[in-house]
Amino acid sequence: MDYVVVWEMEIYNAATPEEAARRARARQKDETAEEPIMDVYSEDGERSRVDLEELQQEESTERR
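Structure (tokenized):
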């Protein structure tokens, strides 16, 4: 199955769209940043909201 994944973030005070895109990409790569919440759309348009921080916490709890 194919999915479209959307991670929306606000970038403030960027001088250009390119600067905003670069800052957003840097934030994506920053391992110290909070885990994102992503909207995932299936082929039939159904949306699932996935909180990666919550998911990681659940997986850590299951491993104990």
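The longest strand covers residues 37-42. The beta strands are 3-6, 37-42, 47-51.
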